[in-house]
UniProtKB/TrEMBL annotation:
InterPro entries: Glyas_Bleomycin-R_OHBP_Dase, Glyas_Fos-R_dOase_dom, MMCE/EMCE_epimerase, VOC_core. Pfam families: Glyoxalase. It comes from the Bacteria. This is VOC family protein. Keywords: Metal-binding. The keyword Metal-binding applies. The lineage of its organism: Bacteria, Bacillati, Actinomycetota, Actinomycetes, Kitasatosporales. SUPFAM superfamilies: Glyoxalase/Bleomycin resistance protein/Dihydroxybiphenyl dioxygenase. Residues 9-124, 142-260 form the VOC domain.
Amino acid sequence: MSDSSLITHLRHIDVAMPNFAEQHRFYTELWGLTETAGDTGVSFLAAEGSPEQYVVRLREDVQKRTDLIAFGAASAADVDTLAARLAARGVRLVHEPRALDTPGGGYGVRFFDNEGRVVEVSAEVTARRHRRIEAREPVPVRLSHVLMNSPTPEATVAWYIEHLGFRLSDTMCLGERGEIMWFLRCNTFHHSFGIVRGPHAAFHHASFEMRGIDEFLRGTGRMRRLGIERLWGPGRHRAGDNSFSYFLDRAGNTVEYTTELEILDEDTWHPHLFDLRDPANADQWGTADEMDEFIAAKSHNDVDPGLFTAPPM
């Protein structure tokens, strides 16, 4: 069995922060997610169009941190195979494969990546009863992708390719400054995960797929009318060919509305290198402000204090 067959899709991103009530209100009342389970200081938030039990988990903590990134596998046997493979290669496990006590249950393993982020891979999670998102309804259909900052991006990209079987879709560069962003896939979507060159390991952004361009623009407009801090967009990227509008949540994490992310043909696709000195590579439409150091610095985020530290749940 090849490494590439073991990870099937992105499940959820779990984050912690001190201002839990503000974050909860942002993601439910403003961003458009639905709480499906919760307790004091924790909330599991689903996207209405997704069968995943939740796509974001919020947890109250005195520190702001990324708790974990979760991916799916096809079967419990694949989880076991992956865990054995990782252990044999010296990857540090947070816990061995076991039954999960999060919504939907399932069977999963947790481990640290090369920079100390916690990654979970699970299978046999009960699908959530979801619904079709209607025309003009500006709420997320699913979690599209998650990107992370890294001070050693080449090593981190290589780690995810070697150990988890991700494939490189495209890379962004900035002239003589070299490569700065790598888009990785685990299925036919252009990317479900990615790494950005940054000053420290931290959350870069999470992106949420909308039903279509009209719903994407309506969601973008709603955020702007509500006074949510806008970083960049609306526009349309070259790599992935997806639309984008970036905002800051209440903890200073970057979140994105997107739609129409490219679906690749695995048999014919070859990675491209796009130079951001050509503004059309950042925004094909030319409708977004030009990307600058101020915008980039906002998504560098704070230093993550949770590296090589397992979250409490």
